Amino acid sequence: MAVLHVSPLSSKITPKLSPCLRPHRSNSKPILCLCSSDYRAHQQHLPRLEKIVAPVHHFSSLGESIARASLLAVLSASLFLADPALAFKGGGPYGAEVTRGQDLTGKDFSGKTLIKQDFKTSILRQANFKGANLLGASFFDADLTGADLSDADLRGADFSLANVTKANLSNANMEGALATGNTSFRGSIITGADFTDVPLRDDQREYLCKVADGVNPTTGNATKDTLLCR
């Protein structure tokens, strides 16, 4: 059974084997050991971990600060490494709700700040992202059929393997977005969209050039120019 042993006079944490979940003394120095099998009993938030550490009164004032800080940091990290689901608490730093791998058909995200939001593999049919800040968001392998992405900030967003057919991308700023794999924009409205530095497949670029028109109101770039249409 793997255990973390923390010395009160050092910030070093070393793995040892021991079946204990209590403070004890070794070589006259107080040690706190916690069994890895008990991690899950204290997962999801640190207050419970504090309850484990707080009762240990053998620490010196300086040693206690170092030991407790080290122990809590390592235990918290260990929980996330042991169970990936625990590490995923939301869809992104600006959107606390879980948006990855979800059915979000028709959901309204209009005008929201969703920087680096994770929408990987989600179903986003007819979802409303009008005017949303989606800088660096991930739509990897997501279904955006019929979604409204008009006026959205999609710079650096990841549309790899995504289905963006029949979507509204009018006036969207997609500078530097990714569109690798079989990403499809078939049937989408792209009037005024900015595709600067978007790595499109030749067949997608050819198709989009046939329907491209307008100028992006934010960047001032003509859609045809950003698609490098001939």
UniProtKB/TrEMBL annotation:
One Pfam family from the record: Pentapeptide
Superkingdom, taxonomy of origin: Eukaryota
Protein name according to UniProt: Thylakoid lumenal 15 kDa protein 1, chloroplastic
Phylogenetic lineage: Eukaryota, Viridiplantae, Streptophyta, Embryophyta, Tracheophyta
A GO CC term attached to the entry: chloroplast thylakoid
